Amino acid sequence: MQARSESIRKQGKRIAFVPTMGFLHEGHCSLLKKGRVLGDDLVLSIFVNPTQFGPGEDYDAYPRDMEKDLQLAEREVVDAVFTPSREELYGSNFQTGIELEKLPNHLCGLSRPSHFQGVALVVTKLFHIVKPHVAIFGEKDYQQLAIIRQMVRDLDFDIQIEGGAIVREKDGLAMSSRNAYLSAEQRKTALCLFQALQKARKAVAQGETDTAKIINDMAFFIQSHPDTEIDYISICDPQTLDSVDRIQKSVLLALAVKVGKTRLIDNMILSP
Amino acid sequence: MQARSESIRKQGKRIAFVPTMGFLHEGHCSLLKKGRVLGDDLVLSIFVNPTQFGPGEDYDAYPRDMEKDLQLAEREVVDAVFTPSREELYGSNFQTGIELEKLPNHLCGLSRPSHFQGVALVVTKLFHIVKPHVAIFGEKDYQQLAIIRQMVRDLDFDIQIEGGAIVREKDGLAMSSRNAYLSAEQRKTALCLFQALQKARKAVAQGETDTAKIINDMAFFIQSHPDTEIDYISICDPQTLDSVDRIQKSVLLALAVKVGKTRLIDNMILSP
User: Fold this and answer.
1) What is the number of domains present in chain A?
2) ipTM of the complex
3) What is the pLDDT of residue B221?
4) Which residues does chain A have within 8 Å of residue B9's beta carbon, measured at their own beta carbons?
5) Which of residues 134-163 of A touch B (CB under 8 A)?
6) pLDDT along chain A (272 residues), means of 10
7) CB B62 within 8 A of CB B21
8) Is B156 part of a structural domain of the chain?
9) Beta strands at A262-270 and A251-259: parallel, antiparallel or unpaired
10) Among partner residues B95, B124, B128, which is closest to A150 by beta-carbon distance?
11) How far is B88 from chain A, CA to nearest CA, in Å?
12) Considering just the CA atoms, what is the radius of gyration of chain A in Å?
């Protein structure tokens, strides 16, 4: 893969890269479409990265469907699909880690303590292997995107990072590989994340600036649905992810909710 | 610098890189000579990296002489000298770190707890900026070289790492920018590091395999010199740096000794 990338770069072509854990959906495809426009050569990686799953999380159960993924890759005119094995990326005596001091201590990082270390590590490795000029990450994983931008700046990666807007089902549920876990009943319930975001957006449009009030109302609404457990609802600074009391400029509204055993996330930028 | 490196790489040229903290001596020059042979384009960096100095260490006092360094760079036919400022490399809100689990818990890492994190961090940054095909590091800093090799393997850097043999003064003292700190009297005393290594080599050549015995004899010899304080003397596995009781295959003999306030290191590979 490194040799291929070197050869592409020497031809003066621009490599666009979309790293994924596979089980592709239209959200991933929108990133690939963006990559197709941004680069002359489009690389997709598919790797369910063990180091970003905590103990008791769903690494083994994470959905996989390589055949369908490769069909979608072909449909999106991907030039190369990189599918390393776990052993290739993490051999014996592996001992290097990457850590950020501040950004992981918010949102998903609080309930998934080593998750973003695993993300930073695998993204660094994939960047060194795929050697992209530009890499595209979905904005559904907002904190992940913020952490990657910070890491790229701090470590002087010569790579442009682009975000791709959240893609939603017709009814508004944010697309996620983990939606595959939901029963028909849970699928209906899962819509409450997006509905709660919309309620908040409406309240802010009507002049509400008190974030405690907004979060309380969202929590009440979500808890009125069966089989839900709120991990967090946060209104925070879009750069630092520090909590905000009053909405005076654009803020990030992000939430994580378990529907049954499935942990779902969603977010939205709110402007006063 | 990144733009320059990209352009050189696109020309199909091979970039050789020697990262240093400046105050160059013949040890550095031997690395540059090696780089001159290994690459078409030779890059030297000069940066006294604050993140690899601990509290109370000699960051401020570390010797600097940019004018002489640039003369030596010219003599060694260096193509580019990279001299970033502290602010350029570590801007505000910097928060990313790199850590290795095992290799730093030996030798110099024990008395300089965050030293190798700082080394791994700055080397990663410099690799991303200079984009070398090959990088050359001195074997005097044996543990540093081992850690960089491990990090390059773990993070999939597409960079060949080469070691350069220790260069010694005529009497045997390993060349080091820190030798500049020594008084005339201390300069004489400092030779005891190399002499202790030679004594050990001789003992092993005569069949000694008991590392405790060898280390004891070295310590006794060093302590017989005024103004010395042993940090460590270690006989260990050259790959893992784990201590060895009996010399049955090639081992690393490494030591750190303070002469006055100046901490000096040296090492040698011993074969039974």
Assistant:
1) 2
2) 0.97
3) 98
4) 9-10
5) 150-151, 153-158
6) 97 97 98 98 98 95 97 98 97 96 97 97 98 98 98 98 98 97 98 98 98 98 97 98 98 98 98 92
7) yes
8) yes
9) antiparallel
10) B95
11) 10
12) 19
Interface test with B, best of A14, A96, A160 (most B CBs within 10 A): A96
* A94 contacts on B by Cβ (under 8 Å): 154
| Listed residues A164, A196, A221: the one ending a domain | A164
Count of CA atoms in the C-beta half-sphere (13 A) of A243: 12
- Residue B134 belongs to what domain range? 2-164
Length in residues, chain A? 272
Is B28 labeled as catalytic in the residue annotation?
A: yes
Q: Do A101 and B95 touch (CB under 8 A)?
A: yes
Q: Which residue of A has its CA nearest to B155?
A: A125
Distance (Å, whole) CA B192 – CA A191: 74
Q: Which residue of A has its CA nearest to B11?
A: A10
| Distance in Å, alpha carbon of A89 to nearest chain B alpha carbon | 8
B70/B199 same-domain check:
no
Alpha carbon B50 to chain centroid, angstroms: 16
pLDDT at B137: 98
Domain co-membership, A32 together with A136: yes
pLDDT value at residue B207: 97
Cβ contacts of B84 within 8 Å, gap of 6 or more: B1, B45, B47, B129
Whether residue B158 sits in one domain with residue B183: no
| Residue B63: both structure tokens together | 């010797």
CA distance B149 to chain A (A): 11
A236: nearest Cα among A94, A81, A108 = A108
Q: Would the pTM count as exceeding 0.95?
A: yes
Site from A155, A159, A237 to mutate, B interface, most B CB atoms within 10 angstroms: A155
- Per-residue model confidence (pLDDT) at position A43: 98
SS (H, E, C) B212-255: HHHHHHHHHHHHCCCCEEEEEEEEECCCCCCECCECCCCEEEEE
Tell if the CB–CB gap between B98 and A97 is shorter than 8 Å: yes
Instruction: Name the nearest CA neighbour of B85 among B66, B67, B68, B100.
Output: B66
Q: Which of A95, A125, A157 lies at the smallest CB-CB distance from B100?
A: A95
CATH number, domain of B58, equals: 3.40.50.620
